Model the fold of this input.
Amino acid sequence: MDVKKLAEKGNSVQLLVKGVDATFMNGVRRAIMNSVPVFAVEDVRIYENSSVMFDEMLAHRLGMLPLKTDLKAYKAGEKVIMMLEKEGPATVYSRDVQSTDPKVEVVDKHIPLVKLAKGQKVKIEMDAVMGFGKEHVKWQPGIVGYSQLAKVSFDMKHIDNPNKLLDAAPGQFELKAGKLTV
Done:
C-alpha cells in the first residue's frame, strides 16, 4: 500500500492511496466514521428560551455542532460542560457557545443557531460527551469518501497528432518526450 498526501486545506485532506481495492478503502472509511472518538453535545438544559424556535429544535441544532476533540485528555464517555447565553436583538452563532475546557470548542464558528428579537434571550447549559459514530451520527468525526481513479494509457502508434488530444481535454494530459501522460 502506498499513501501520498495530495492536498490539505482547512479541515480537509485529500490522499492518493495505491495498492488496495475498494473493499479495503470502504473498511477504512467506515472505521474512521464509526470508531474515531469525538465530542458532541449529548444533554441540553434550557433555562431560558424566549426565541421563536422550539426547545427541541434548538437542542437538536446544538447536538449537531462539530466540536474539536482532545483525544489525549479525555476518554470515551467523559464530558465537558458548555454554555450559551445571549440576548437579542442578535443572531446566535456557534461561536457564542463557550466551553469550560478551551481544548474542546466548536470547529465552525459561523453556524447560525437562532435569531433573537429585542427582549428575547437564550440561556443554555450543555454536556458534550465523547462518543463514537456507531452510536449516533453526531459523533462522526467528519465526512469520508473515496473514488477510484481511471487508469489511462495511450498507444502512440494510433495517435497521429497528440496535440489534438491535448486541445480536446485541456489540463488533463501532458506531452513529455513524445509520450502522453495523465
In short: The chain is about 15% helix and 35% strand.
